[in-house]
Amino acid sequence: MSVPVAGGSTPAPVTILLVEDDEVIRRSVTMALERYGYRVTSAGDGLTGLELFREGRHDLLLLDVMLPGLDGIGLCRRIRETSTDPVLMMSARGDALDVVSGLEAGADDYVVKPVDTAVLVARIRSLLRRATFAPAASRTPAGMADGRGRPDEGGHPGGHAPLVFGDLTVDTEGLEVFVAGRPVALAPTELRLLLEFAANPGVVLDRQLLLRNVWDYGWDGDSRVVDLCVQRLRKKIGAERIQTVRGFGYKLRR
Amino acid sequence: MDTLRDLVNWRSLRWRIALLVAVACCAIALTVGVLVHRSTLDRSMNDGESKAVTQLSRALQDYERDGVAPDGLRMSSGAMPDELLRRLRDRQGPSGGYATWYDGDGPGDHPSMWAAQTYRGSPVAVQVDMTTDLLTRRALDRHMWKYSLVALAVVVPLSALAAELPNRRLRHVARTARRIAAGDLAARTAADRGGDEITEISATVDSMADSLLGRLRSEQRFTADVAHELRTPLMGLVTASGLLPEGEATDLVRDRVRVLRTLVEDLLEISRLDAGAERAELRPVPLAEAIGESLARTGLVTQLTTTGALSAETDPRRLDRIVANLVVNAHRHGRGPVEVEVAGTCVTVRDHGPGFPRELLAEGPQRFRTGASERGRGHGLGLTIALGQAQVIGASLAFADAPGGGAVVTLRLPKAG
Q: Hey, are the CB atoms on A25 and B236 less than 8 Å from each other?
């Protein structure tokens, strides 16, 4: 019962794992998020964070980049080995190295400290929307079949024929993705991005549009987020499937 | 295109070298030509003189033997040129020698050599035709001209071609230096050919790029470290102050936290700009819309007029930063109404306050200096940031006083496409 159910009568609290070494930030962010109704588990270093991640189920991971022991980027990479849970990174340096390595390690989005609680919550909500939109893929890679019993979304088996692009098959109803017949585990952001492409095959989608539709950024999103998510998606579904159109954006090859 | 432009650039090193070679060749050809011409002329004069003298003495012998003047021997001074007679008079001495004169302006193109002698008190002379000689000399001169020109026609293009190799290496150095100047600090000339001056300048450019890169890296690292050290406690402060119960004291704290946060972010932004760590993400941006949205986000009352607004090739986030800073600055330090005009790819922000202080107009914006006190308090970072960001997106920012009073800032952006 860790998947938040939008609009449910008795919503289970969304649990967030916060890994942050600065005690004031850890405690104040925990308190602030609890005010918004989230349940927060926190750790002060990377290794403890990894332990907590393995012990319990979390709907979202909020990781600081600079951590003693295992840093946020390493932690994110370890988490991504077994999970497609949404990951939001917090960087205090905010330089290209931090941001890019965090996104390369598999983070879905990042915020630069200091961040207002309202902004942080907006990012968390956007990420969770992607995760609840694609519950099948938000769980562990092995649990693809979990999505079938979703009580509240879609659930019309065979209502839609899956979309096929070469050896890539996207089941927009069951929210499953297959490459050459084998299921592929996509993180929620990756799945949302792929669905965006699949809805407009052969159409060039610019970064601003993708930032708006997938990440819910108004106008000031960082286009590197898109670029790095496209890179990760390519690794999973084949590099040729998504074509870069220089100066414009990306398009899905039919 | 580049090669063509380079080819027709008469100030290029290639043509200078070719010109130098041409001048050197001409000088050599001229010197040799003049020397040859002179010595040929001298020899031809000597030959002509001795021929004329021989002919004269033979004619006199014939005359003495036969008693009849042979053909060609002139016995009356009326048939002789005045110059020859004058020379003969000058020569008159006990020895009674010969006088010769080359009549270069002879009838038509037929010069001749005269030889005269005093024979029994009166002058006698012979005239030898020198036309063949003259024609031979002229042919020689023509040949020298012709072959000098042929040699030039071969040597000049050859030297221009030979200059191509060092030229190419120099152009490579220039290209690399330009790339470095444009921010590609990984660019290297990687030259190891020869131990000449070009290798030296290549190595110098490379080592300059190395040291620039080193400095940039350490500055960027420093900026990132400072950012981390400042933002971490600030994040705690921002979040914790958000948890405080509402009240007057809380408002005061939150206000100061906001100011502190803006100041830290501005300083970090300036230090990133100074470290040259900023890279623009350029794309075509329709200016009328972008500026309109920027103004709306400032939440300040600003009049926007657009006349023939175009799209600019720019980074929308940085453009927003610039416009917001200019507008906020105009509201804070100037007086309303603040007017923004977009015309083409040019954005002007104008207020109706006291105008910019003189130091700002002279030296540009300076950190922590707001100049005249009538422009109010402020840390003076806004305009510095606007200027820095404008440089990053390749735009120009000009500060001036408006004709009717007030400050006016003009931002010129590169046109899209």
A: yes
In three-state secondary structure terms, A83 is coil
- Cα–Cα distance for residue pair B406/B416, rounded to 1 Å: 31
Q: Assess whether A83 and A47 both reside in one domain.
A: yes
Flag if A29 and B239 touch (Cβ within 8 Å): yes
Domain residue limits at A221: 135-145+157-252
Task: Please name the member of B225, B234, B283 whose beta carbon is closest to the beta carbon of A114.
Answer: B234
From chain B residues 248-287, the ones with a CB under 8 A of any chain A CB are: 261, 277, 281, 283
CATH number at residue A45: 3.40.50.2300
Optimal mutation site among A35, A65, A95, interface B, most CBs of chain B within 10 A: A95
Among B223, B225, B261, beta carbon nearest to A114: B261
Residue A6 lies in a domain: no
Which residues, other chains included, contact A108 with Cβ-Cβ below 8 Å and sequence gap of 6+? Answer: A86, A87, A88, A127, A130, A187, A188, A189, A229
- Residue A93 has its nearest CB partner, among B228, B240, B293, at B228
Min Cα–Cα distance to chain B from A240, Å: 25
Q: Are residues A99 and A202 in the same domain?
A: no
The single-letter DSSP state of residue B56 is H
- Which residues of A are less than 8 Å from B261 in CB distance? 114
Q: Which residues of A touch B242 (CB under 8 A)?
A: 28, 32, 116-117
pLDDT tens digits, one per residue of A58-72: 999 999 998 998 999
> Other C-beta atoms within 10 Å of B140: how many?
14
CATH architecture of the domain with residue range B283-412: 2-Layer Sandwich (3.30)
> What residues in A contact B320, CB-CB < 8 Å?
219-220
**Which residue of B218, B220, B230, B239 is the best one to mutate when testing the A interface, meaning the one whose CB has the most A CBs within 10 A?**
B239
Looking at the structure, tell me whether residues A117 and A198 fall in a common domain.
Answer: no
d(CA B104, CA B100): 13
A19, A101, B113, B321, B389 from B266: Cα distances, Å: 28, 25, 99, 11, 12
Residue A25 lies in a domain: yes
Among the partner residues A28, A114, A220, nearest to B231 by beta-carbon distance: A114
Task: Tell me how far apart the alpha carbons of residues B55 and A176 are, in angstroms, rounded to a whole number.
Answer: 123
Nearest-Cα distance to chain A for B275, in Å, is: 12
Closest Cα to residue A59, out of A101, A14, A27, A93? A14
- Lowest model confidence (mean pLDDT) among A209-218, B191-200, B309-318: B191-200
A35 plus A63 within the same structural domain: yes
Look up the CATH number of the domain holding residue A210. Answer: 1.10.10.10
CA distance B224 to B212: 18
Residue bearing tokens 């000009």: B398
Convert the pLDDT of each residue in B35-79 to its tens digit.
999 999 999 999 988 888 888 888 888 888 888 888 888 888 788
Sequence ranges of the domains in chain B? 4-161, 216-274, 283-412
- B245-303 residue pLDDT tens: 999 999 999 999 999 999 888 888 888 888 777 888 888 889 999 999 999 988 999 99
Contact B236 A247 (CB under 8 A): no
Q: Provide the pairing of β-strand A15-19 with A87-91.
A: unpaired
8 Å CB contact of B239 and A117: yes
Cα distance between residue B302 and residue A123, in whole Å: 31
Q: Say whether both A180 and A230 belong to one domain.
A: yes
Give the residue from chain A lying closest to B230, CA to CA.
Answer: A92
Query: Per the structure, how many domains does chain A have?
Result: 2
A174 & A129 share domain: no
> Can you name the residues that pair with B346 across neighbouring β-strands?
B343, B412
